[in-house]
Design goal:
Number of strands: 2
Number of helices: 2
Strand order of the largest sheet: 1-2
Radius of gyration: 15 Å
Length: 57
């Protein structure tokens, strides 16, 4: 969606980014830990689908 970066002053777009993946070698084995972008992830995804559904009508 071309205008996604402008929705909710950029907060919408920030929440739609992929989770951050970090390398973890603390156990001696290579593992990856995923960190989410915030507490509102699920709300923002639901809002995104609602917005896209309305835009396509």
């Amino acid at each position: 969606m071309p205008a996604a970066a402008e929705i909710d002053a950029g907060e919408f777009y920030a929440q739609m980014k992929a989770p951050k993946r970090e390398r973890d070698l603390s156990t001696g084995q290579l593992r990856y830990r995923w960190s989410e972008t915030g507490a509102l992830d699920h709300y923002r995804h639901a809002h995104a689908f609602d917005h896209l559904a309305c835009a396509s009508q």
